[in-house]
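>> Question from a student workshop board

For tomorrow's exercise we were told to take the sequence and the ligand below, predict the bound structure, and bring the output to class. My setup keeps failing. Could a helper post the expected result so I can at least see what it should look like? The ligand is flavin-adenine dinucleotide.
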Amino acid sequence: MESVAEFRERARAWLDGRAPKRTAADTLTDTGAGREWGQGEFSVVVFHDASDADELALLDAYREWHREKVAAGFGAIHISPEFGGLGLTKAHDAAIKELELQYEVPRDHELISVTSKLIAPTIEEYGTPEQRAEWCRSFFQLEQFCCQLFSEPGAGSDLAGLSCKAVRDGDEWVLEGQKVWTSTARISQYGFAICRHDPDVPKHAGMTAFLVPLDAPGVEVRPIKQMSGGASFNEVFLSGVRVPDALRVGDVGAGWKVALTVLGHERATSGSGRRGGSFDDVVMLARHLDRADDPIVRQQLASVYTSGKVRDWTKARSAASAKATGSSGPGGSLGKLLWTQALTEISDVVSGLLGASLTADTGEWGTFGWNEHVLGAPGYRIAGGSDEIQRNIVGERVLGLPGEPRVDRDITFAELARQSRT
Ligand SMILES: Cc1cc2nc3c(=O)[nH]c(=O)nc-3n(C[C@H](O)[C@H](O)[C@H](O)COP(=O)(O)OP(=O)(O)OC[C@H]3O[C@@H](n4cnc5c(N)ncnc54)[C@H](O)[C@@H]3O)c2cc1C
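>> Workshop helper replied:
Here is what the output should look like for this input. Compare the format with yours to find the bug.
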């Protein structure tokens, strides 16, 4: 197999001929060197505040770019050749992703990662040969998109407490219930849903996974407005939605195992792509405000830099261990926690630097725009498992601390539901 270093050099040569380099002001570096205040577009957005049409245009642009990369031998890098990929490693993939940040190429989108890095590999693992043939290529190659229908009003951290029903009717299942916080449901063709098919067994045992076409009769998607301005997530109501048994993923009753696989991929990929402001952006702001020599600010900048580095190395260690063991394990939780802590730390530092300019738009480049980071960052402390849940996982599975008391393990879901009503 070609070494990562050789692959990176070939990719760099191809990108040089294909796309303009971003200006110094836009280029991400570790040191902030070369960045200039006021140049280029200033965006530190965490969640887009865009219309559905604009979101779809972003996806189309990325899909075109993906196709071009595949044709040139620089796309679908770690995907199996069975699904049109190159079958190289995640390190090769990371190498070109890093390089792409230096060029004017279409930006990644959250739905691309959910579809191709969470759902597609889960179907690869649990799907039937027919499902793998039909969906893996389509999702890995971004031909169609799929969102995650997990959380419900009564089930988030305790996902196994979900109550959306799946009732078998011949060769079909009838789904009934409500999902919530479903990111990108308005622009996805499919949702990957975990539903309860059997309330008369303990809660972890009675769940099954389905691919749900979001244009099926009985599916209603309602946007939820966020404090950062956009409405990237939704409520999804399933009212008598019929899905063929051919769209069940994994065995009946394997829903919890399937859900954990999706969540494991989610933790392992959290923080990939560009979300929010970087260390460079903070340094540039401190320099512009003439605060970069202030001893307290210097200490804060050093801390932001160090946190970023610790996170990168933790991710690298976790990726190496995943390669060796075939599973991302609890290292993904540590990586996700470090990422959300870094986002929060950046929010704290820029809030201190900007003061009132963060809340009043004076039109000055690179100031008020930071509120997109400050108001968006808390979302990722909750999405994909909250900070507290990641800490529980790290405590139990990395540090070997005693587990949380789990008194509901041997009680049927129906009995639990009855007890919570009384
Ligand atoms: C930006 C964003 C995008 C999302 N996208 C999706 C999506 O696409 N699909 C989807 O299905 N869901 C999505 N979610 C939902 C997300 O997975 C849930 O919000 C999350 O799992 C927390 O569940 P909850 O909101 O019900 O909070 P709860 O579980 O009710 O938690 C409330 C608080 O209690 C704490 N807590 C709960 N249990 C424990 C415990 N055992 N120990 C310590 N503390 C605990 C939590 O950390 C939290 O602070 C998204 C959420 C956000 C914010």
